[in-house]
């Protein structure tokens, strides 16, 4: 996948197009990601005892990973992600605009 959890991404398609957020979870088998503040769903939770009360809860739902692009802090816009093999044999993700390595 071109994004990992913790990355800042921009939504490029769907009802939340243009929103920017942090990737919370990644589901590589389904090719889906959960982004902070994007695709908000309303869930009706049943009380689970005295410590966990019930109610209506807002939570993020998964969206397809093809609908997000990595947000480069150096370029200040959404960019495509490439891969590069370093001299020590390690494979890292790189920004296709500025060439900066994204994986530290």
UniProtKB/TrEMBL annotation:
SUPFAM superfamilies linked to this entry: Translation proteins SH3-like domain
Q: Origin, by domain of life?
A: Bacteria
Q: Name one GO biological process term.
A: translation
User: Which GO molecular function entries does the Swiss-Prot or TrEMBL record give?
Assistant: rRNA binding; structural constituent of ribosome
Q: Write down the InterPro entries for this protein, in alphabetical order.
A: KOW, Rib_uL2_dom2, Ribosomal_uL24, Ribosomal_uL24_C, Ribosomal_uL24_CS, Ribosomal_uL24_KOW, Translation_prot_SH3-like_sf
**Which terms in the GO cellular component ontology are assigned?**
ribonucleoprotein complex; ribosome
Q: Record keywords: RNA-binding included?
A: yes
**Where are the annotated coiled coils located?**
none
Q: Give yes or no: UniProt keyword Lipid biosynthesis.
A: no
One Pfam family this chain carries?
Answer: KOW
Q: Which UniProt keywords apply?
A: Ribonucleoprotein, Ribosomal protein, RNA-binding, rRNA-binding
Domain KOW, by residue range, is 2-29
Describe the task this protein carries out.
One of the proteins that surrounds the polypeptide exit tunnel on the outside of the subunit. One of two assembly initiator proteins, it binds directly to the 5'-end of the 23S rRNA, where it nucleates assembly of the 50S subunit.
The protein's assembly and partners: Part of the 50S ribosomal subunit.
The UniProt similarity line reads: Belongs to the universal ribosomal protein uL24 family.
Q: Which PANTHER family match?
A: MITOCHONDRIAL RIBOSOMAL PROTEIN L24 (PTHR12903)
What is this protein's record name? Large ribosomal subunit protein uL24
């Amino acid at each position: 996948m071109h994004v990992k959890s913790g990355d800042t991404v921009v939504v490029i398609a769907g009802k939340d197009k243009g929103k920017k957020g942090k990737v919370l979870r990644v589901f590589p088998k389904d090719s889906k990601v959960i982004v902070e503040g994007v695709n908000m769903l309303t869930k009706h939770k049943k009380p689970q005892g005295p410590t966990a009360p019930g109610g209506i809860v807002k939570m993020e739902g998964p969206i397809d990973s093809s609908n997000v692009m990595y947000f480069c802090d150096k370029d200040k816009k959404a960019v495509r992600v490439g891969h590069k093999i370093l001299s020590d044999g390690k494979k890292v993700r790189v920004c296709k605009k500025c060439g900066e390595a994204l994986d530290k």
